[in-house]
Amino acid sequence: EVQRLNQQLEEKNGEIQQMINQPPYEKEREILRLQKSLAEREKAQATSDVLCRSLTDETHQLQRKLASTAEMCQHLAKCLEEKQRKEKGNSDDQIPTERSNQLLDNETSLQALICNLQDENRMLKQKVAHV
């Protein structure tokens, strides 16, 4: 291990001696190349940081939207359940045909809305998982 480290140290000393022995313009050129490389890396890091912040914000936004969608689905499911219980209670009262059709339309639209919300919920979960 010591020999390997000594060899690396000798290589580095050789590189330093080469740099010292180079003409001044070569040194300047190397310095400029290193500065340019550093600037490119700093720019790439800044871009990466901005993208990470943006993705984090989008993730939080999608999580909030997912939570509100899930809450809305639960609320609609409860409403549908209550309506079904009421319909069962009213079935003994012989609901008029027009009222019956209206309730069926409402139930169908609620079910369609629930399906849409479930699809949106699924898509949001996929987006969150992707992010």
UniProtKB/TrEMBL annotation:
<keyword id="KW-0175">Coiled coil</keyword>
<dbReference type="GO" id="GO:0034138">
    <property type="term" value="P:toll-like receptor 3 signaling pathway"/>
</dbReference>
<dbReference type="GO" id="GO:0005737">
    <property type="term" value="C:cytoplasm"/>
</dbReference>
<feature type="compositionally biased region" description="Basic and acidic residues">
    <location>
        <begin position="1"/>
        <end position="14"/>
    </location>
</feature>
<dbReference type="GO" id="GO:0034134">
    <property type="term" value="P:toll-like receptor 2 signaling pathway"/>
</dbReference>
<feature type="region of interest" description="Disordered">
    <location>
        <begin position="83"/>
        <end position="103"/>
    </location>
</feature>
<dbReference type="GO" id="GO:0071222">
    <property type="term" value="P:cellular response to lipopolysaccharide"/>
</dbReference>
<protein>
    <submittedName>
        <fullName>TNIP2 protein</fullName>
    </submittedName>
</protein>
<dbReference type="GO" id="GO:0043123">
    <property type="term" value="P:positive regulation of canonical NF-kappaB signal transduction"/>
</dbReference>
<dbReference type="GO" id="GO:0006357">
    <property type="term" value="P:regulation of transcription by RNA polymerase II"/>
</dbReference>
<feature type="compositionally biased region" description="Polar residues">
    <location>
        <begin position="92"/>
        <end position="103"/>
    </location>
</feature>
<feature type="region of interest" description="Disordered">
    <location>
        <begin position="1"/>
        <end position="25"/>
    </location>
</feature>
